[in-house]
Amino acid sequence: MASTSDIRNGMCINFNSDIYKVVEFLHVKPGKGAAFVRTKLKSVTNGRVLENTFPAGAKLDEVRVEFREYQYLYPEGDAFTFMNNETYEQITVSGNIINAPDFLEEGMTVKIAVRAEDEMPLTCELPATVTVEVTYAEPGIKGDTATNTLRPSTVSTGAKVMIPLFVNVGDKIKVNTETGAYMERVK
Q1: Which sequence spans correspond to the domains of the chain?
Q2: At the top level of CATH, which class does the domain 65-125 belong to?
């Protein structure tokens, strides 16, 4: 059991018969009344975000989580298969616990959070950025470069990314996996 003084970002807790990850927290000590901790929690199972306030000193049921590196192998319908880099065991993970399944490429290394008690995968996080190749792009209008104009494109993983006019088909680009936004062209 942990208390509110142990709360930190990334901590996983049992709350309302579900597992939640602490996204952000704020310890508040008002001038009048008791202190409390305001938190933003994200459900590990369904991705729902909720805000909750815990009184200072409240007991929390912490879930022990281990982060392990896995290599992406192949998709299976809505699920994805990964291989543990140390033990070579394969696991199949549901697509809804992956933060950006559109950017998964064969052989990519990801971090999977696993509940220590029963080896249940909780979250799967891709690297912060990935380098992909542009396979299709809408044609740009010549001379329309005075503003920061973006056009839709498709990258090698099948994801849709908005790119600037100067990026062409065949160029490699760096994409932020959290937002799906174009970052820069890679040489």
Answers
A1: 2-62, 65-125, 129-186
A2: mainly beta
Mean per-residue pLDDT, 60-87: 91
Residue 21 pLDDT: 87
Query: What's residue 143's pLDDT?
Result: 63
Quickly list DSSP for the chain.
Answer: -EEGGG--TT-EEEETTEEEEEEEEEEE--SSS--EEEEEEEETTT--EEEEEEETT-EEEEPPEEEEEEEEEEEETTEEEEEETTT--EEEEEGGGBS-GGG--TT-EEEEEEETTTTEEEEEE--SEEEEEEEEEPPPPTT--SS--EEEEEETTS-EEEEETT--TT-EEEEETTT--EEEEE-
Q: Is the pLDDT of residue 51 over 90?
A: yes
- Across the chain, what does the average pLDDT equal? 89
Long-range CB contacts (within 8 A, 24+) of 75-82: 75/104, 80/104, 80/124, 82/110, 82/112, 82/124
Q: Please, what CATH class does the domain formed by 2-62 belong to?
A: mainly beta
The CATH fold of domain 129-186: OB fold (Dihydrolipoamide Acetyltransferase, E2P) (2.40.50)
Per-residue pLDDT, averaged over 42-53, amounts to 85
**Do 65-125 and 2-62 have the same topology in CATH?**
no
In this predicted structure, what is the pLDDT of residue 9? Answer: 87
